[in-house]
Amino acid sequence: MVDAPFISEELCTYTDRTPTTTKEKIVVLGSGWASVKFIQNIDTAKFDVTVVSPRNFFLFTPFLPSCVVGTVESRSIVEPIRQLKKYESRPLLRRITEQIFSNVTKETFEEATYFESACTKIDVDNSCVYCQDISSVSGECDAFRLEYDRLVVAVGATSNTFNTPGVKEYAMFLKELEDVSTLRDRMLDAFETAALQDDTAAKKRLLSFVVVGAGPTGVEFAAELDDHIREDLSSLYPDEAKLARVVLISSTDDLLSSYDKKISDFTAELLKQSPRVDVRSGVRVIEVKKDAVVCKDKATGEEFSESSSLTVWSTGVKPGKLVEELIEAIPEQTKRAGMIVNTSLKAYGTDNIYAAGDCAVLYTGTTMFDKLDNLFTAADNDENGTLDKEELLSLFSKPFIVDQFPQAEVFQSKVDEDFDEWDKDASGSIDRDEFRALLLDVDSTLRNLPPTAQVAGQQGSFLASQLNGETTKGFEYFHKGSMAYIGQEKAAAQVSMLKSLLPNGLQGKLPLVGEDIVLTGRLAEVIWKFLYLDMQISNRNKLQVGFDWTKAIIFGRDTSRF
To answer: pLDDT digit string (tens) for 149-204?
Structure first.
């Protein structure tokens, strides 16, 4: 969702576009995974549904790295929202069920209403939203308000810069379709400009690309870029391709740290086989400059600089301005990572606001802060009233702590990486106040579920089923697995479908069925392509992506700038 300035009523009169209907009014904000799955499953005979988003298409975000280098064309991974809200786009099982039990057919189906506009303000007290057209072609004052009985906030999230100096000014992101063309243009421009240089050192500086963040997006972009240079650009820019470098910076010691250790190790080893890829693990970026990235080795404290003509920032997400303002307006909302929702996806502190996808944080248990005194006492092994690093690491690894607080693993990682941040007086240990600050800081940024397409899509479908009255159970995430393309026609897959079918107490304890299935290499790439093709939102997208892959295999990737 695009952040937009709020227009006051003094400057613009808001047209009331609230529909006149006896049906319950639902306003949906966003056009991503959660929104689309909700729209395709909600009972429009029962509810009047209005969708508001400045982006009039659904975007298959996992393929953004592929689009930058031309493996997949940008047009192949988008589908108009106006098409997706039609009867034909609803799931087959949904259509059959509605025909049998509700007598809803193509002729009698009522579509949702869509407005290509940005929501600029949510008025919680009066149950209405204020919106405006922020497109390049708009009227003199295309601003309006919508009243709602229920509001579904599914606007996604923005890139988290962690307030690192220079990121907003000099780094680039990979979240939207506009980012694809910007990155592609900068990358190819670097090769064209380098071809004009006679000095080898100047060429090297121009052909140094830095990717900050070793999650799926960062790793896939680094892998795709390496493939593109080796397979396509090396024949067009032979001298320059030999000098090109792709630097992948990870704040943790492992790549794809949320995946199985086997996947992390295989990925690191595969990338190291490329003469162009340098992996910097256990490194934090402390500043981004126009032509360089300043880093700090977390183990040694040494600072160093990496030349960069293109810096891609991919280190996690945070709420956008609209959601931040909504959180501030609701006292019960205490998470900085997003809107806290219960298992019905209703936002805490509200009666009629729901959140789904990347902007939501599912709350399913007790925060560690609630048990501060007990935790501090349990960790203070030498009973000296302070906790050193080893005591903290021991606390967050104790079985009874991990069982009660699933987020303990994240706390352990944070302590291991950033202990000095909470040891304000550099005493080598933290007191009770510093421990309180640690729990508050980490707890407020934690997410129980990852910000992925799987989670958002399942939440959207669940919320529609719940409002339709088709289920009374709370939301439970079914993890099908995690996949990532890691370069050189190889992928990594961690398939969890069989494991997820078991009760929680048996997961991880039964051989084969109770464990994740881990695949790496070419077989994993075949599975990755098959599953990602199946995940496309429409048959048109499936055909186009398949054609793009075939075209790239036969003719190579397009290397023109546009």
So the answer is: 999 999 999 999 999 999 999 999 999 999 999 999 999 999 999 999 999 999 99
Token couple for 363: 């709350």
Q: CA 63, CA 58: separation in Å to the nearest integer?
A: 13
Same domain, 405 and 268: no
Is residue 431's pLDDT more than 80?
A: yes
Pair (417, 437) in one structural domain: yes
In the chain, the number of structural domains is: 3
In the three-class reduction of DSSP (H, G, I as helix; E, B as strand; rest coil), residue 21 is classed as coil
CA-to-CA distance for 228 and 224, rounded, in angstroms? Answer: 6
Same domain, 183 and 113: no
**pLDDT band (50, 70, 90) for residue 445:** low
Contact 334, 131 (CB under 8 A): no
Of residues 29 and 502, more confidence is placed in 29
Residue 143 domain boundaries: 15-157+319-362
H-helix segments, 172-245? 177-195, 200-206, 216-228, 234-236, 238-243
Burial 144-175 (b: 16+ CB within 10 A, else e): bbbbbebbbbbbbbbbbbeebebbeebbbbbb
Task: Decide if 387 is inside a domain.
Answer: yes
